[in-house]
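debug: dumping io for the single-chain case to check the tokenizer round-trip. Nothing else runs in this session.
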Amino acid sequence: MAQIDAFFKLMNDQGASDLHMVAGQQPVLRIRGEMERVKYQTLEDTNLKEMLYEIVSEDRIKTFEETGDVDFGYEIPGLARYRGNLFRQKNGIGAVFREIPSNILGVEQLGLPKVIHRLSELKKGLVLVTGPTGSGKSTTLAAIVDEVNANRKDHILTIEDPIEFVHQSKSCIVNHREVGAHTNSFSAALRGALREDPDVILVGEMRDLETIALAMEAAMTGHLVFGTLHTLNASKTVDRVIEIFPASQQAQVRSTLADALKAVVSQTLFKRVDIKGRCAAMEILLCTPAVRNLIREGKTYQITSAMQTGKKFGMQTMDDGILEILEKGWISPTDAYLNAIEKNNFVKFLKKPPSEFEDF
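debug: decoded output
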């Protein structure tokens, strides 16, 4: 048993999502979105480095010492998997760990909109799940992939850095590939994937032009591709995919993306007030013919209006998603107000709006 495993058990017992271990400070847990210090001595650089190096492979240690940061995965059988990042900071070494539960929760268990279930029934195309770091993108994707795994007879290939949720093969065959351990890069794995007979491909993060281009190519050649981006809403996601390409290619990319894209799900996590835990508010864009035309014509600024008029198809804006979980009593009116786009629509739920936001 590694020395650091005791902190992971504490993390699990406390229901924390993240563990921060940084030289010069006490350990810190993120519980329901808030940072809470662990009653433990201040971590010293030498001792912390020894503790961390015990669970990191030699090749990842070498990368860390050469570059100053590295991602890696760690698993405690019977407890959970952890996505870790080592980095250097002013007082020495630091690390942050995100807990990846062993049990994969389904779409219904997570309380996600019913339309999310329909994404698992798609046969081809590109589905993007977006949001800031820590917004639950991986959890949502895991739920969708689990639906595919349980109900279809396909080959699912995941490409991640590092591997997060581990799917045991059910009706599908599932293969997991980790960047750095099993392949050199997302783009290299995607190039190889087209020769590995996949039906469904999960790309843990679409970081660069080549990865995005290959993901669109896979979607256009009959594969169902799921991917993530660190964008805040549906229209910014479409813009991000297009703008990463040189200006001379963007007209063609708009046309290709319009044909390839099936849906964009953007989400934000909220602390629940009814029970311990968190929940996601979602913006959902489905690529109807009208939306495809907006993408082709470069009119992404009209996508929000298209979502508002497309509610009958299951589309919703972020404000719609926030309102839904607010009316269920899951989140506080203040949180809803502070995270809403059109704040005036949420003033009526507040006893008194925060003065600093009254003009917004």
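debug: round-trip ok. The chain has a mean pLDDT of 94.
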